[in-house]
Amino acid sequence: MKPPMQERRRKEAPAAYAPDGSHLKVAAEYWECLSARDPLQLVAITQFQLTPENGLVFRFLNRDVLVDPKARCLRLWCGTGWEKVDDPLLELATVLYLINVKDVYPLGRDIVGPRDLKEGHFFQGPHELRTAPLVERFGSDVQGLRQAAEALCGEPVDMADAAYRLKPFPRVHLYYLFWAGDEEFPPRMSVLFERSIEETLAADAIWGLVNRVSTALLTSRV
Fold first, then answer.
1. Cβ count near 105 (within 10 Å)
2. Cβ pair 82, 66 in contact under 8 A
């Protein structure tokens, strides 16, 4: 018997994503698999909200996003209604998360770096987490980092010189840690996760989600 689609997906070789996700397209079979899931179970374990049309609404950082399985797209709330948005990295990570999530996983415990995950070997070479643009932008502007993170509803945590917990999904958190440079060491930044992230997202999807959140930090309007 063949393993379920989501299990096969997790065992496939990671996709070579463009940094902006421009060539990504979520496969129709992923949307079909999502449509087959019980929406009431999903809202119970993810803290997403159910719409009358069986759409799923969640808070991505500081924006409300609607997952529309019927139209197979994401929509953003724009004050007067939901508008379709082309956001391939977020769309792929969201659909895969909803396909794979099976339980209410613990938050705030067992926080690890990317190479501590089971698929940690993925996060090297071309797939090393892209923190360099953030260091370049905020390396001498810690206050700017704080403002950008807080504009995205980030919560300060007592780690590093400045650190924030950002929430791409209600129950999936990313931790951005920043150390200011000095005469001996240049500034640096790390991204950490709750280990439970690997229960719902394969390494390539985690990589894409981090890229999407990092882009939000870089373009945050404060």
1. 17
2. yes
Report residue 19's pLDDT band, with 50, 70 and 90 as the boundaries. Answer: very low
pLDDT of residue 3: 40
User: CA-CA distance, 32 to 186, in Å (whole number)?
Assistant: 47
Report the alpha-carbon distance of residue 8 to residue 172 in Å, rounded.
Answer: 22
CA distance 85 to 74: 6
Q: Is the pLDDT of residue 23 over 90?
A: no
Give the integer Cα–Cα distance in Å for 197 and 95: 14
Phi then psi for residue 189, to 5 deg, are -140, 145
Overall pTM > 0.70: yes
Angle of the 88-100 helix axis to the 39-46 helix axis, nearest 10: 100
**Residues 122 and 56 sit within 8 Å (Cβ to Cβ):** no
Query: Do the beta carbons of residue 140 and residue 187 sit within 8 Å?
Result: yes
Amino acid at 174: L
Tokens of 24: 């990504």
Say which residues have a Cβ less than 8 Å from residue 111's Cβ, sequence separation at least 6. 175, 192, 193, 194, 195
